[in-house]
């Protein structure tokens, strides 16, 4: 594993095998089963739980006057797929993510759902390697400080609507163009149109998440200079 990724993460793994596994998508593992004991799916499961706790504590401390409902909304928005994918792009995880031939051909390394899953797997690997304290520091530094300070937790669909209405767009529509994966973990791909003009594409494990990802992509394309940081 090249040290450059660990330098970007700001963390050096004691057991590099954990980081390698965090970067192996199930599509790659199915084609190269000898490369690792498993894909990154179990690490993603663990990382999701660690991320929820670390982000909850961050928001609890940062906003001492906020009620439970507002904290919950902030948490769900600050660690949603588009925000996590933006963090993954800053860390250039897509360059290291190992994908099967089909996922590679379809541009999986740029897809929000795969990037956010990979980041969660890295968090899970870090937790196994170092425990909660160091992992929480990483989450605070590389996820929460960025998503909160950059305002990425704002509702992308609402921000897109506000921006394009001021430019004379009459209608925003979201169209599901693909559903893949097993029933218990489908990935939805959604295109967003401004009037009849294609404006962006997003994917997620629910239609709502995919629509948010598509809106976030449309915002990036509409304001490339302003949103350049989200592309890493």
State the gist of this model:
The protein is mostly helical. 56% of the residues lie in helices and 11% in strands.
How does this structure look, described?
There is one protein chain. With 232 residues, the protein is mainly α. It folds into two domains: 147 residues, Ribonuclease III domain (Ribonuclease iii, N-terminal Endonuclease Domain, Chain A, Orthogonal Bundle); 72 residues, Double Stranded RNA Binding Domain, CATH 3.30.160. It has eleven helices and three strands, in the order H-H-H-H-H-H-H-H-H-H-E-E-E-H. It has a three-stranded antiparallel β-sheet with strand order 1-2-3.
If you consult CATH, what is the topology of the largest domain?
Answer: Ribonuclease iii, N-terminal Endonuclease Domain, Chain A
**CATH architecture level-2 label of the largest domain:** Orthogonal Bundle
The percentage helix is 55-70%
Q: Report the top-level CATH class of the largest domain.
A: Mainly Alpha
SSE pattern: HHHHHHHHHHEEEH
Structural class: mainly alpha
């Amino acid at each position: 594993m090249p040290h450059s990724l660990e330098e970007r993460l700001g963390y050096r793994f004691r057991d590099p095998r954990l980081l390698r596994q965090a970067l192996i998508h199930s599509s790659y593992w199915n084609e190269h089963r000898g490369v690792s004991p498993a894909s990154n799916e179990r690490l993603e499961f663990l990382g999701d739980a660690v991320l929820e706790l670390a982000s909850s504590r961050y928001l609890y401390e940062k906003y001492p006057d906020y009620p439970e409902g507002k904290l919950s909304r902030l948490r769900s928005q600050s660690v949603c797929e588009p925000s996590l994918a933006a963090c993954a792009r800053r860390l250039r995880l897509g360059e290291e993510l190992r994908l099967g031939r089909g996922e590679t051909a379809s541009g999986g390394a740029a897809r929000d759902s795969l990037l956010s899953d990979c980041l969660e797997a890295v968090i899970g690997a870090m937790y196994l390697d170092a425990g909660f304290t160091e992992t929480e520091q990483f989450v605070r530094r590389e996820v929460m400080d960025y998503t909160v300070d950059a305002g990425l937790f704002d509702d992308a669909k609402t921000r897109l609507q506000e921006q394009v209405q001021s430019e004379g767009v009459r209608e925003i529509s979201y169209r599901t163009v693909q559903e893949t994966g097993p029933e218990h973990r489908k990935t939805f791909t959604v295109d967003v149109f401004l009037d009849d003009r294609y404006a962006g594409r997003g994917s997620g494990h629910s239609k709502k998440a995919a629509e948010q990802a598509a809106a976030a992509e449309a915002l990036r394309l509409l304001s490339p200079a302003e949103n350049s940081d989200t592309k890493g």
